[in-house]
Amino acid sequence: MVLFAAAAGGALVVQARESSTQEARQLSKGVAQSFARAPGTLAAMKSGDPTELLQPRAEDARKNTGVDYVVTFDPQGFRWTHPDPKLIGKHIYAVREGGAADRPFTRTFEGSLGLAVDTTVPVYDTNGITIVGFVSVGVTVASVDDVVMDQLPQLLGFAGGALAVAAGGTALVSWRLRRQTRGLDPSEMTRMYEHHDAVLHAVREGVLIIGSDGRLLLANDEARRLLDLPADAEERRVTDLGLEAGTAELLGSGRPATDVVHLAGDRLLAVNVRPVDPGDRTSGSVATLRDTTELRALAGRAEVARERLGLLYEAGVRIGTTLDVVRTAQELAEVAVPRFADTATVDLLDPILRGAVSAGPGPQMRRVAVHGVDGVRSLYPVGELIRFVPSSPAAVGAERGRAVLDVDLTAPGGWMSAQDPVRARRVLDLGFHSLITVPLQARGVVLGMASFWRSAGDPFGREDLAFAEELAARAAVAVDNARRYTREHTLAESLQRSLLPGSLPDHSAVEVAHRYLPALEGVGGDWFDVIPLPGARVALVVGDVVGHGLHAAATMGRLRTAVHNFSALDLPPDELLGHLDELVARIDSDENGERDHEGVAGATCLYAVYDPASGMCCLSRSGHPEPALVLPDGTVEYLRVPGSPPLGLGGAEPFETAEVSLPEGSRLVFYTDGLVEDRERGIDSGLEALRHALAGARRSPEETCQDVLDALLPARSSDDIALLVARTRLLDPSRVAEWDVPGDPAVVAGIRTDVTGRLRTWGLEELAFTTELIVSELVTNAIRYGIGPIRLRVLRDGDSLICEVADGSSTSPHLRRAAITDEGGRGLFLVARFARRWGTRYMARGKVIWTEQSTRSPAVEPEELSADALLDQWEDAAW
């Protein structure tokens, strides 16, 4: 009891000191706030000499209120007033720890007057924003200790009295316990009490013991909480405790009940009632109460979590079904509405739409997707470039990289009014009240923002942020994949278009039109070309590299260049494809052997040479579909060109050719398999559809191309499509002259005369000298070194005059410099000097040496440049 008295006395001292300290805090706070709000304080702080006006008032307030000091100072910390005049104008060196400069705070700290309880109150200007100064009022700890010491005798007297009362009470209780327990040992009583008290107050169910007369005998803490019982509930009738009528009637009746649900305030209680003695209804009853509200809430939250997980799973399935950035954003908006939000919008940075990587989040984004149940038209439309104000959730979220929640869009002075007042008014009128804005970021890069709007139901809460971020994170990965694909697709398409011919040359042999359509889901290696050849002929080429992407496009460029180079050698179609096959096989071998890179994996090609002088067309193909021929009457047939395996597959079989005579006005149609074959259509049905689309006469190549695409172009092409249509022409027979040349040099003079006569007929007399010289040299060389039969052909094609000398020998002449002592060797040099181009073309038997002169260049007259003068330009000293 002595120890108890000492402890109680110490507690009382501490309590008294704490109470005094609390009074000091309240006193300092009240004086500080009163002085700060007193009339004239603000005006004095804003005056030219605040100290002169405030010091007297501060001292009066200190003396009248009993505080130890009243200090005022400016926002920079320089004192205006102080009980010690020497400290006026001095600086307060630091802000109190834990204090906030924009609101009142109370702290205990060590000041110039010692340890003190201090309250500091800011004084605001009339605008309520600018702080003009501060008022600091304190009561030193020494003053508090004086109050405690003054109260100590009373505290000790009270502790002594309490000790005496406690001793007497203990004795009385001990006597009554022995009497009521009939001599039961106190330790046993303690054990029993602790056991029953632990059971009653530790269980999570309410327990009521009700007498047979309907009075409440005992209620544990949980029962008091569930039923909100008053403190004096014991010994009162259950019907007088303010319970719901049904609940009170059940508890007072004493009849057995099992999990009967009753409403108690805002709780749903499962009530169980059992008699204390089942054989005696007059013994009273025991009722247990269980709160099922939390269980239902937990079940509701579990249902919400299950629905959210289902929505996330659905998002993983529905978002990113295509590699299109805009479509992926639209899928995100469609998944979120209406199960999570009433409206969803997606805004992306402009570089993302082009497949580029953004340098960083910016204030400008383009609206790419909007989806909602209502009010969509009031938001920014798709395609509009939006510049967000810095205070908007989109700008804040993009800068911080975290989701931003705006619980109340209707708050006055919000960011929506700063963004667009008119649109904000329309949005609020439609009932939109809360918003979550989440950054779409992948690999640490912000791609854009997804915004979820609600106009019905409860506003968004903090628990919705995590789900919105998870949903946006899954969508961001799909958007980034689409962006990367867009970038690669754009690069491959740009590379492919740069490697394809920008425009096809006009040629007298054919009138051409073409179409090239890249695949929507990947750039392929389709290409086409029209290559002029000597003798007014033309080569038509269509090819297809297996695969998609940058590698296929680059390989296509290499093959197209190779075809041009091989065409310059004027090779027959089968030989050209043979060289091309070797090239593809070598490319595959080099790439697979030297570096880990995918090979060409095969390519197809169709190569045709058309001669407008004879109307003959020579074709060869390697793994490519057969070309279509539309005759002048509109009849369509597929040319039976012998097939060969695709290029690069290592086939040992030689390539074969097919020759066909084409009437003038026929249309040759070359195409790649993407036109006639796709996932939903076989090649046979595609070829038949192409036949129907081509049927019909009197259509230009351009019209033919358009009709074919209109009839056969699929909705979403999975492969490139290349289409080349060439309408054939024949040279006017009057522009072609041919002579059979006997093997006698004496006939050369007569042939020169015939050629000059034909040039006179064509109006090309100015080319007579050079043409006679060229014909003389070529025919003479053919007679001397060639093998019969020998033929001379002269053609006029546009602005070109072409001379061709054919013989049965495969020996090719070579240009060289002749020494002064040489009797020959200068003729071919003269030919090269006067002709614009010249070359050799090999045939199945023999060769053709050809020259081409321009009819527009000035002719060289004999008196201007003789043969001797030409030969004098070449000296042996140079060699």
TrEMBL record:
<dbReference type="Pfam" id="PF13581">
    <property type="entry name" value="HATPase_c_2"/>
</dbReference>
<feature type="domain" description="PPM-type phosphatase">
    <location>
        <begin position="507"/>
        <end position="728"/>
    </location>
</feature>
<feature type="domain" description="GAF">
    <location>
        <begin position="347"/>
        <end position="489"/>
    </location>
</feature>
<keyword id="KW-0067">ATP-binding</keyword>
<keyword id="KW-0597">Phosphoprotein</keyword>
<dbReference type="InterPro" id="IPR029016">
    <property type="entry name" value="GAF-like_dom_sf"/>
</dbReference>
<dbReference type="Pfam" id="PF17203">
    <property type="entry name" value="sCache_3_2"/>
</dbReference>
<dbReference type="InterPro" id="IPR029151">
    <property type="entry name" value="Sensor-like_sf"/>
</dbReference>
<protein>
    <submittedName>
        <fullName>SpoIIE family protein phosphatase</fullName>
    </submittedName>
</protein>
<dbReference type="InterPro" id="IPR001932">
    <property type="entry name" value="PPM-type_phosphatase-like_dom"/>
</dbReference>
<keyword id="KW-0378">Hydrolase</keyword>
<dbReference type="InterPro" id="IPR035965">
    <property type="entry name" value="PAS-like_dom_sf"/>
</dbReference>
<dbReference type="InterPro" id="IPR052016">
    <property type="entry name" value="Bact_Sigma-Reg"/>
</dbReference>
<keyword id="KW-0418">Kinase</keyword>
<keyword id="KW-1003">Cell membrane</keyword>
<keyword id="KW-0808">Transferase</keyword>
<keyword id="KW-0812">Transmembrane</keyword>
<keyword id="KW-0472">Membrane</keyword>
<dbReference type="InterPro" id="IPR036457">
    <property type="entry name" value="PPM-type-like_dom_sf"/>
</dbReference>
<dbReference type="InterPro" id="IPR036890">
    <property type="entry name" value="HATPase_C_sf"/>
</dbReference>
<keyword id="KW-0547">Nucleotide-binding</keyword>
<dbReference type="InterPro" id="IPR003018">
    <property type="entry name" value="GAF"/>
</dbReference>
<dbReference type="Pfam" id="PF07228">
    <property type="entry name" value="SpoIIE"/>
</dbReference>
<keyword id="KW-1133">Transmembrane helix</keyword>
<dbReference type="Pfam" id="PF01590">
    <property type="entry name" value="GAF"/>
</dbReference>
<keyword id="KW-0902">Two-component regulatory system</keyword>
<dbReference type="InterPro" id="IPR033463">
    <property type="entry name" value="sCache_3"/>
</dbReference>
<dbReference type="InterPro" id="IPR003594">
    <property type="entry name" value="HATPase_dom"/>
</dbReference>
